[in-house]
Amino acid sequence: MKKYIMRLLTSVCIMSLAALASAQDTSVTLSVDGKPALALQVPPAAKVTSSNGYVNIRTINMSLHVWAVPKARTAKDALPRAGELIKSEFIKFATTVTNDMVIAGSPAKHVIGAGNEADDGDPGHAEVVLFVIGSHVFAGCVHGEFDDASRARAPMMAVLQTAHAPP
Question: Reduced to 3 states, what is the DSSP secondary structure of residue 128?
């Protein structure tokens, strides 16, 4: 009986460690002109698509788009261009709320607004976070119809709060 309990406990420990290891986040790097510029931690099941200066992170709870913002030095510099930055995904963006926040120890801007989805023109909302890592400014965006953007806010912020310069 004692050996049975020990084997059972050992099996449970091994399964727990395996589950813990598989639940760890995965690192994603966004490159600008072939050089790593931004690292993010994403859920292990996330589907990631990237190209120069852009990455899309898709999970069950969100589709987060992150772009490098050319010719901006601060989040405030990029603020007037928020609608232009996200136009491949969301058009006619009209800002309704702008909040100050901090990402990676630097001032950032969280912009919320209404407009239309670029793919089908449906009305909706978008949330954009403008932030600085190293010498680059980035724009992270979630959007959707109805309250899709606000429901994706927490998962988006969880990913963006992991932002740091790649090693």
Answer: strand
| Run of H or E including 53 | none
The type of residue at 40 is L
* pLDDT given for residue 96 in this prediction: 97
| Coil vs helix vs strand at 78 | helix
How many domains would you assign to the chain? 1
pTM: 0.85
Q: Token pair for residue 161? A: 């709060």
Does residue 164 come out as left (phi exceeding 0), alpha (psi in the -120 to 50 range) or beta? beta
Q: How many CB atoms lie within 10 A of CB 25?
A: 14
Coil, helix or strand at residue 154: helix
Rounded CA-CA distance 142/96 in Å is: 15
From the centroid of its chain, how far is CA 71?
Answer: 21
Q: Which domain holds residue 93?
A: 25-160
State how far the alpha carbon of 41 is from the alpha carbons of 120, 133, 163, in Å.
30, 14, 7
Summarised one tens digit per residue, pLDDT across range 83-104 is: 999 999 999 999 999 999 999 9
Q: Does any domain span residue 97?
A: yes
